[in-house]
Design a protein that fits this description.
heterodimer; A: Rossmann fold; six-stranded mixed beta sheet; B: 213 residues; alpha/beta; 2 domains
Chain lengths: 221, 213
């Protein structure tokens, strides 16, 4: 009930709004084997890390890659890569909280005024992405930063809902699922582009030879 | 009527306090917000960069907010130039810096450097070449303005070859035809797939081609 009067706004900060050339809907990673590691920390709880990994697996599987995921946990040993087939690309994802703002005074004022004064909470996070090849050589890395601002107040929600309904185009809408969709589009685009650049770099540095494992996996002509 | 006026004025102080918030909202569209480059800075760093707008942090610390979101308008608005050109040009200084650093470390002798960029858009290719030459000069290298050119027949053959064979063959031909001598180095900067946004580079020394990245 409380969240129905809230509007969450997403703002891409560092790198997330950079243009993307690669189309995540087509097979950009045919024959590639990937290992995605979502590393839990203070900001990313193990359950959230698992969800992130599942999400990223779906992203790259849709682009033709064979994806394995791993969520390293404290007290358990890392995956034995020597035993299984090695990945062509190893993607490490680490998240951290850069900034958080949540004023108790504003929440009190909001409650006293029946949310006519909106309560505002915001946080800025950084998603660190590192991509390596099977030997551990770093092919690409980037830090993606985004910001979410949540306004809770019946007046603000009503104004934004009316604007979405009457004035704003679909791409400009702020209410409903818009922030999740916008963030997913940016995050998936940047991750796909980084991985594609890493794949090309690896290919060039190997003298344009596919890795022996990738050759084995490709269908014979 | 008075009650309604009071109700409308109530949230005003909160919104006044967020008048400069760069996130999308009632007065700023998502498109406008995406044309800003924003980064979060500590108050001390923000004061150093924007002394008129951000006060100095108090010496004894504070309970209040101690960081700032600093935004600058992007030089080119989103969609004004093709996506790949935008990414490559907006990170050109760093990319070219990395390439020339690696290249300079590999060939440290008294050589004359030649640079060319292989990019589908000639205007962007020219910018890449100029940036690479400038970086090499700043690193103390002797850089030539001349771009080594092969015979038309060679170019016709090379045009049809995949990058794996084209660049090493071009390098060998440069040397065989005397376009490049033992005192010359050729640095090529290129993309090899239309979908990538990161430049590759290779070095041609004494007729041998070496991929750098």
């Amino acid at each position: 009930m409380l969240s129905s009067g809230c509007v969450t706004v997403y703002q891409p900060l560092v790198s997330l709004q950079r243009p993307v050339v690669v189309d995540p809907r087509i097979a950009n990673f045919e024959g590639q084997r990937m290992l995605v590691r979502c590393i839990p920390g203070d900001y990313l709880q193990p359950d959230d890390a698992e969800q992130l990994c599942r999400n990223v697996r779906a992203l790259f599987t849709n682009q033709g890659a064979q994806v394995e995921v791993e969520v390293p946990r404290a007290g358990t040993s890392a995956r034995d890569e020597q035993g299984g087939a090695k990945a062509d690309l190893i993607i490490d994802l680490k998240a951290r909280l850069v900034h958080e703002e949540n004023s108790a005074l504003l929440w009190t004022l909001s409650g006293l005024t029946f949310t006519l004064i909106p309560a505002i909470t915001e946080f800025t996070f950084a998603q660190e992405v590192t991509i390596r090849d099977a030997s551990g050589f770093q092919l690409a890395s980037d830090t993606l930063q985004g910001r979410f601002v949540r306004y809770c107040g019946v007046g603000l929600w009503a104004v934004n809902s009316a604007l979405d309904l009457l004035v704003r185009s679909e791409a400009e809408e702020l209410t409903g699922d818009a922030p999740n969709k916008d963030f997913s589009r940016d995050f998936h685009g940047q991750l796909s582009q980084l991985a594609f650049n890493a794949r090309m770099r690896s290919w060039v540095l190997r003298g344009f030879e596919e890795s022996p494992r990738a050759q084995e996996r490709l269908p014979s002509k | 009527m008075e009650t309604l006026l009071i109700m409308l004025l109530m949230p005003l102080p909160v919104f006044m306090g967020r008048a400069y918030d760069p996130s999308p909202g009632i007065f700023q569209s998502k498109e406008e917000a995406r044309n800003l480059e924003c980064t979060r800075l500590s108050q001390a760093e923000a004061h150093e960069r924007f002394p008129g707008q951000v006060p100095e942090p108090p010496a004894r610390g504070t309970w209040a907010v101690t960081d700032a979101l600093a935004c600058t308008r992007r030089f080119m608005r989103s969609g004004e130039r093709p996506a790949r050109d935008e990414v490559i040009l907006s990170s050109l200084r760093q990319t070219v810096g990395d390439i020339t650093q690696t290249a300079s470390a590999l060939e440290a002798g008294e050589l004359t450097w030649h640079v060319d960029a292989f990019y589908p858009e000639p205007a962007v290719a020219a910018k890449i070449s100029v940036a690479a030459r400038t970086e090499l000069v700043e690193r103390g290298r002797k850089v030539s303005d001349r771009v080594p050119v092969l015979a038309a027949g060679d170019i016709a053959v090379l045009w049809q070859l995949p990058p794996k064979r084209a660049y090493p063959l071009a390098c060998a031909r440069y040397f065989a035809q005397g376009v490049l001598t033992e005192r010359d180095v050729f640095l090529g900067v290129m993309i090899v797939d239309a979908r990538e946004t990161r430049l590759h580079a290779g070095l041609c020394v004494r007729g041998e081609w070496k991929w750098l990245q």
